[in-house]
Write a sequence for this structure.
């Protein structure tokens, strides 16, 4: 079977202004790099339209309405200090959320074995009613809720290896026994959350905080705890918040991962997915701000997904 690659054209219209790290080229360089290899096992798809009902399973209705009315008709506006929006941001935002629905439906319908959503804006800092850290809608959260509501899954795991803690995702699922949220992240660092003490109502939150300077070996040793939690949980479906900003070249953080580590991390998650959920994995882009490191790391991530088919 193939790997789905869900990406839009509308991400190019989400203009965050000159010098902003969450830039249009982040998605472009990944797409261009993957197309260069012309792998016939990648099935390229565009996101389908997402309904408000699906989004409002995750986000407060008032927040969704507020967001819809926040996009400027010209120039720039901001939802918070980091999250800049422009007129084209509206469609990019809803297409980003729609991509994970398209990916999940594709896996469920056996159109492809697994999928990577190459989209922006990212999502994991967005909570039920607040945007933050470049994130407007919590794409991976919307995906997890959709799996539970539409496909009646009882055990959905989210693995977040972005260098920043996925505080929005944690907030959304803190009291949800159907979702295991695992996050490896630099700590203490933005957004300031993600200590080991934050465990969730059902012991369903697993934070693995790592100090600045953590290298490949130290990271992969720590990641064994994530794998242990996944094995104990026995997930029926795995979602990945794939941030590549733990790379040593990234300008926004201080972990020391190498490109090949993202292949290894993905392979280890895949091995568990084969045991419990027949390899059902959907991954979605979060951070990553050095363009070359991002393109190369995302390629290795997708390589691992392709190899599992």
């Amino acid at each position: 079977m193939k790997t789905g690659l869900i990406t839009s054209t509308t991400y190019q219209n989400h203009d965050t202004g000159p010098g902003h790290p969450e830039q249009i080229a982040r998605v472009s360089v990944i797409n261009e790099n993957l197309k260069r290899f012309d792998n016939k096992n990648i099935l390229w798809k565009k996101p389908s339209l997402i309904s408000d009902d699906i989004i409002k399973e995750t986000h407060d209705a008032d927040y969704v309405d507020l967001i819809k009315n926040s996009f400027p008709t010209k120039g720039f506006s901001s939802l918070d200090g980091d999250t800049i929006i422009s007129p084209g941001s509206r469609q990019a935002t809803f297409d980003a959320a729609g991509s994970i629905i398209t990916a999940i439906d594709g896996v469920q319908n056996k159109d492809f074995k697994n999928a990577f959503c190459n989209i922006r804006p990212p999502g994991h800092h967005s909570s039920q009613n607040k945007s933050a850290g470049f994130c407007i809608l919590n794409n991976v959260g919307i995906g997890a809720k959709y799996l539970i509501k539409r496909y009646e899954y009882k055990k959905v795991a989210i693995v977040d290896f972005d260098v920043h803690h996925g505080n929005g995702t944690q907030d959304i699922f803190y009291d949800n026994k159907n979702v295991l949220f695992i996050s490896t992240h630099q700590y203490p660092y933005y957004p300031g959350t993600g200590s080991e003490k934050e465990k969730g109502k059902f012991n369903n939150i697993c934070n693995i905080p790592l100090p600045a300077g953590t290298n490949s070996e130290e990271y992969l040793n720590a990641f064994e705890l994530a794998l242990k939690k996944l094995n104990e949980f026995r997930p029926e479906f795995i979602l990945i918040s794939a941030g590549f900003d733990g790379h040593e070249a990234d300008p926004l953080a201080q972990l020391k991962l190498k490109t090949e580590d993202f292949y290894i991390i993905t392979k280890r998650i895949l091995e568990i997915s084969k045991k419990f959920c027949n390899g059902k994995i959907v991954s979605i882009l979060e951070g990553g701000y050095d363009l070359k490191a991002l393109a190369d790391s995302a390629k290795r991530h997708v390589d691992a997904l392709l190899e599992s088919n």
User: Anything to note?
Assistant: The mean pLDDT is 98.
